[in-house]
Amino acid sequence: MIHHIELAEYETKEVRLDAGQARRLASAAQNALDVRHAEGSGAYRVGATNFVGTLVVDDLKVLIRPKIRLENLFLMLEAGLPRQAWRQEAFEYAVSGDLLSAMVAFYARTLETTLARGLLRSYRLHEEALVALRGRVDVTAQFRQGGVQLPVPCRYDEHTIDIAENIFLKAAARHCLRLRGVHPEDRQRLLRQLAEFEGVTDRPVRAADLDQLHETRLNAHYWPALRLARLLLESRSLADQWGDRATSSFLVDMNRLFEDFITGRLRRELQGRVQVKSQHWAHLAEGDRVPIRPDLVFWRQDKPAYVADIKYKLTGDARARPSDYYQLLAYTTALGLPEGMLIYCHADEGAPESIITVRHAGKRLLTTAISLQGSPDEVAESVEELAATISRRIDGGLSLAGRLVA
Q1: Residues 59-106: tens digit of each pLDDT
Q2: pLDDT digits (tens, 9 = 90+) for 105-135
Q3: What pLDDT digit, counting tens, does each position of 266-285 carry?
Q4: Element (H or E) spanning 117, and its range?
Q5: How many CB atoms lie within 10 A of CB 290?
Q6: Which of 352, 283, 351 is nearest to 324 (CA)?
Q7: Sheet with 136-137: strands ordered across
Q8: CB-CB neighbours of 251 under 10 Å
Q9: Rounded to two decimals, what is the model's pTM?
Q10: Are 322 and 293 in contact (CB under 8 A)?
Q11: H helix runs in 134-292, sequence order
């Protein structure tokens, strides 16, 4: 009997499990779930953390819903889903006709990750009449020729990229390009991927054709993309609900995903104006001691001009954590900057305090929050405004530094 567990991000529930189930779930989930025995009962407390997605462990299936809108989860996946996030087990999702453009973006990035390992090749049987012998002579066909000796009917295996898996993925990419509302960047990505499929037969396929393929050790890394491709060929997208459409389960770290998304968007928005370095190593102490690594350092004129740290979650009362302020203060001090910024995901309870000035140090520590509750266009607009704010703060800081030098 399959046991379904449904949680929201950071939610905890009491679930009836036996000791073996609890142990296997805790082992497979690692940091994604907190599994503890509930004192005084035969149940276990299963708590979600900063991971969302799906997890399948034997007879247990866990669905962890994000607090943000599902289409914005797909939007953030433009940063790419790490290969280790995909799970081998299949999860039965519900599907809908909505969010197709977001699903196309998800597919394009999944396909990009898949093709990074190179196109899959396999042997395919050919039967062809040739002037020169290749492979094995097709004896039956040769006898049918009577006295004619050439060309020789041959049967041979060719190691080729023109195989069903690649034909299927190519057809899905072409289908995506015909859909409305696909972002121009995703179109460009899909067009580049189609170029990689040069030499693969370009023919229409049906979603049901996937049923004829079998997962093996050699093509296992193709299956996340293949399952998404089937949904797209049916013009369907995943919904965070139970259903009957199988695709690979996955768990994604929202902390890391939010950081990668903000970093990628700011790098794109500030291109040509500011150089954005992520996870930049520096040192807090003289003599290159006490290493630190801010999430973002913005460089102008070959020197650090601004620093920011990205935090997915605020405290319960929508305030920045004191430890986050301490960390940012260390970064501004080590880099010799008058100001830095904490970038949060907007909490339901409200926005954090916008700015504080550190006593006796004069450092200004800003906080801002990007809401992921609006539409993807509203999210994109918020990040554009954030980029504009950072650019203005950098310009203001450089102007102030110039006046002080003068």
Answers
A1: 888 999 888 888 888 888 866 676 677 777 777 777 776 678 888 888
A2: 889 988 988 898 889 888 777 677 754 555 4
A3: 999 999 899 999 998 989 98
A4: none
A5: 12
A6: 352
A7: 122-130, 152-160, 136-137
A8: 22
A9: 0.76
A10: no
A11: 139-144, 164-178, 184-196, 223-233, 254-269
